[in-house]
Amino acid sequence: MRQQTSSLIQLLCKCLKFQKTKSQNYEQIKNPIEIPQQTERSKGRKTLVIDLDETLVHSSFEPMKINDLIVEVTMNDQKYKIYVNIRPGAHDFIEEASKYFELIVFTASISEYANSVIDFLDPHGLVDLRLFRENCTVYKDILVKDLSLLKRNLDSVILIDNSVNSFMFQPMNAVHILNYFEDKTDQELTLLIPFLKLISQFQDVRPVHEWLFKYAHFDKFEYVDVMGIKQLFYDFPTSSDSQRDKLLSPADTPKLEEHKILVKQGIKAKIAEKQKSEDINDELNDKQNESMSEDRCTETPNKIGGNEDEIMRDNLNINSPNAAGKQILFPQLK
């Protein structure tokens, strides 16, 4: 399957007849498309750049088990059929992400093929801009997606791509998504949506991969919102923590004030429990001292206070949950 993908990309590249001399190791392909300003719909929003092949879809010249779309393209005066498998959740991902971001699909493929696929993925025209192979930058024979050419502030740009080569110029802006081929149980796009909703509120999205790691593995962390105000994201641990990414919607998590109340109650419970334990220990020490005093008066030989103390502790069962009254449950502080 990987060989089919490689041959597809190579053939799509050949049709452009792009040549580069050995003396050229860094060259921007001339861009025939003037990058426009944000539309009225997405004005002021952050920009989400999405790769196409192996990120939103997987394509092959050979029929696959599931073919969601068949695209016919003409290359070198010859017609080809390209079989396309759509990544699960791709349609919903575009629709949901368009509510929070300016959307740009940026692919290293040719427009003759990519436009047909994007039309299928985005029937409602939610994608603001389409960029293709001719919009890439060539660096040492590698096609790179230089985000600085988008004329957007880089603190507000995120690129989702399966290839590390694509974001070698701006790795701090990238989410390195897993390759997609034919697995219809794949949930990568669906899992990313809640995280993207949250990071759309950040003043600076960089480094995106570190924020994603925190969101997936930390129960709480601080960030600075678009107004420059520090905010705290808090999420109770759940049974879904074993997944690759714990990406729960912030709307489903407890409010910050509720969290503060729980923490305050937990601290009070800890202090009360500690105080009760200290009171019991003081009482036991007093009784031990009284017993030792009585022993000295009666001159009873071989009586060791420590053994009596251990017996009394065993009788009280101090280590049991009910030793100091009803056990109080409270959230663990980290």
Quick overview of this protein structure:
The chain is an alpha/beta fold and 334 residues long. The chain has 7 helices and 13 strands.
Explain what the structure shows:
It is elongated and about 105 Å long. The longest helix is centred in the last third of the chain and has 43 residues. The N terminus and C terminus are likely disordered. The protein has 334 residues and is an alpha/beta fold. The chain has two domains: 184 residues, Rossmann fold (3-Layer(aba) Sandwich), CATH 3.40.50; 59 residues. It has seven helices and 13 strands. A five-stranded parallel sheet has the order 7-6-2-10-11. Strands 1-8-9 form a three-stranded antiparallel sheet, with no helix packed on it.
Count of separate DSSP helical elements: 7
Percent of residues in helices comes to: 25-40%
How far is the N terminus from the C terminus? 45 Å
Largest sheet: 5 strands, parallel
**Nearest-angstrom radius of gyration?**
31 Å
Kindly report the CATH topology of the largest domain: Rossmann fold
Q: Strand order across the biggest sheet?
A: 7-6-2-10-11
Decide which structural class fits the backbone.
alpha/beta
CATH-defined superfamily of the largest domain? HAD superfamily/HAD-like
- Would you report the number of β strands? 13
Q: Runs with pLDDT <50, length 5+? A: 1-7, 13-30, 239-266, 296-334
CATH architecture of the largest domain: 3-Layer(aba) Sandwich
Strand content: 15-25%
The CATH class of the largest domain turns out to be: Alpha Beta
Biased composition (Basic and acidic residues): 278-298
Pfam families: NIF
GO molecular function: phosphatase activity
Region (Disordered): 278-309
